[in-house]
Amino acid sequence: MTKALFEQAATELLNRRVAGTKAPRLAEQQRPTNVDDALQIQSSMIDQYSDEVGGWKCLLPLADDKFVVAPIFADTVQRGENCQLFADNNKARIEPEIAFILAADLPANPEGYSEAQINEAIGSCYMALELMQARFSDDSGAEFYEKLADCLVNQGMFIGPQVEREKAFSAAKIAITVTQDEEVQTFNGEHPNNLPQSPIYWLINYMTRRGIHFHAGEAIITGSYCGIVEVAFNKPTTINYGGIGEYQVTFTEKS
Questions:
Q1: What are the Cα distances from residue 63, in Å, to 35, 59, 94?
Q2: What is the pLDDT, as a whole number, of residue 179?
Q3: pLDDT category of residue 228 using cuts at 50, 70 and 90
Q4: Inter-helix orientation angle 3-19/35-48, to 10°
Q5: Labelling 177: which of 160, 198, 209, 210 has CA 20 to 30 A away?
Q6: What is the greatest pairwise CA distance in the chain?
Q7: Rounded to whole angstroms, how far apart are CA atoms 83 and 218?
Q8: Which residues touch 188 (CB under 8 Å, ≥6 apart)?
Q9: How far apart, in whole angstroms, are the C-alpha atoms of residue 48 and residue 127?
Q10: How many whole angstroms from its chain centre is CA 88?
Q11: How far is CA 240 from CA 43, 114, 195, 244, 249, in A?
Q12: Residue of 164, 139, 137, 136 lying closest to 149 (CA atoms)
């Protein structure tokens, strides 16, 4: 793909993101066919978007050619008693995770960083939700690299209460309870990469070697403990992480 095609694909995906609409797959000439194409489109999205990057999502690679990495824009990172997001399947779709906030910059570096250097750069840790929305229509036939270019269903992040660093770094398993009125959803949560900080080491090294700068204040989420949870809008929602903490938030539909 050429730079012009990366930019065209990025413009199309950003238009869908802002509108919150579902759409067919990209035009054939704009479709990424490998990881590098998808990340080049993400990079063009960062260049074109009206706000800066406020965080990242990541997991350890699913395979040699299937990476889980995407920017999260600052204006989609929320805190407080309410959280606004686009509906998907007429529901608010969330993933309970832990967010790690960088306390120091990690500039682009062809040599990468050691785990000790990355640990030193990680500041506070928080209960967090990844906010999810599939922007390709169900019958689109969109393939993995198109979804990667579109940030893998991410529409934002909600940051809840702070978690003790030691608890966050040892949280391989967390019992998750999501309660709305009389409806209670319970999950025997387990991090997909065992420890939630593990994907950060891969993310920082892979992306800084590609020329990406990470900045203090950016929040990194690293995978859901229980997949996607669907909840109703406009109801106080209590989210409990067993042995760690809980908070209440009300989801409102973005239009």
A1: 11, 11, 25
A2: 98
A3: very high
A4: 60
A5: 198
A6: 54
A7: 19
A8: 173, 175, 226
A9: 30
A10: 16
A11: 35, 33, 19, 8, 11
A12: 136
64: confidence class by pLDDT, cuts 50, 70, 90: confident
The Cα–Cα gap between 18 and 33 comes to 24
User: Which pLDDT score, from 0 to 100, does residue 217 have?
Assistant: 98
SS3 for the chain, per residue?
CCHHHHHHHHHHHHHHHHHCCCECCCCHHHCCCCHHHHHHHHHHHHHHCCCCEEEEEEEEEEECCEEEEEEEEHHHEECCCEEEECCECCEEEEEEEEEEEECCCECCCCCCCCHHHHHHHEEEEEEEEEEECCCECCCCCCCHHHHHHCCCCEEEEEEEEEECHHHHHCCCEEEEEEEECCEEEEEEEECCCCCCCHHHHHHHHHHHHCCCCECCCCEEECCCCCCCEEECCCCEEEEEECCCEEEEEEEEECC
